[in-house]
Amino acid sequence: AAPSPLLPLLVASPVVALPLAVSGVDLPLAGLCCLALAAAASGRPALAGVALGAACALKWTALPAVAVAAALLGSRRGARAAVRCAVVAGAVTAALVLPGALLQPGELWRQVFAFPTGRSEVATPAASPLPGHLLAELGPWGWYLTVALLGLGGLGVALSLWVRPPRTLVAAADRLALGLTLAFLLAPAARFGYLALPVLLVVWARSAAPAGAVPSRVVARSGRRGPRPAPVR
Question: Is the distance from CB of 25 to CB of 195 less than 8 angstroms?
Fold first, then answer.
């Protein structure tokens, strides 16, 4: 299929230009998430798993993408493809993260968990006035409350993947964007700039999906009913 005219606009837009200018890992992370979803939509679980493993090794923000890609593969290719994707993603992540974790476990905890959640001795600069951060600023109970809300949001998205798994690239990107948006809004420490990733996923999926890949529900239902009988004259 011919490339969408939206792609050059997407590349030149702030959601790509901002992380390209000020971030070290956010743009590669976004690219790996897009690659993983595209591979899952085309039925390539191994490639999707490798991309997801590399993304998770860069930043734990990519963890929800593993669940979304597995759900997409499961709905299109069956449970075996979904499990293969998850296993490959876990193996690649472990291969990239375990050496550092074994050598400096304390530093891994401080850099990967304590610092991003505002529990480190060094204050994180991610302090935009989003709901999770405002709650965490109220004291210890506020921090635990926002973590609980964050967990409930994750469970809600996971339940939606189980009950109604995505079947198209656009649906998968939308579900991942929803999960990431909830995570960024409810995280104890976050920036407004983090929301560029969900926007990028939504716009990219619509520019990359082939025309006619997302039929309407009305068309899909009418197609299942079969042809109408010819009128009797």
Answer: no
Nearest to 64 by CA among 215, 209, 187: 187
Report phi then psi at 21, rounded to 5: -85, -35
Residue 219, domain member (yes or no):
no
Distance of CA 233 to the CA centre of its chain: 57
Q: Give residues with Cβ within 8 angstroms of 34, minimum separation 6.
A: 200, 201, 204, 208
101/104 Cα distance (integer angstroms): 5
Q: How far apart are CA 129 and CA 185, in angstroms?
A: 9
Q: What is the pLDDT of residue 220?
A: 42
Tally of domains within the chain: 1
Dihedral pair phi/psi, residue 32, rounded to 5°: -70, -35
Measured CA angle at 89 (ends 214, 174), to 5 deg: 25
- The crossing angle, in degrees rounded to 10, of helices 169-186 and 140-163 is 170
Give me the residues of the chain with pLDDT under 50, please.
Answer: 212-224
Cα 187 to Cα 163: distance, rounded to the nearest angstrom: 25
What is the structure's pLDDT at 221?
44
- Asked whether residue 216 is assigned to any structural domain, the reply reads no
For the chain, the farthest-separated pair of C-alpha atoms sits apart, in whole angstroms, at: 85
Question: What are the CA-CA distances from residue 77 to residues 59, 198, 233 (Å)?
Answer: 28, 25, 46
Cβ–Cβ under 8 Å, residues 160 and 175:
yes
Total number of residues shown for the chain: 233
pLDDT, position 149: 92
The CA R_g of the chain, rounded to the nearest whole Å, is 20
Beta-carbon neighbour count of residue 26 at 10 Å? 20
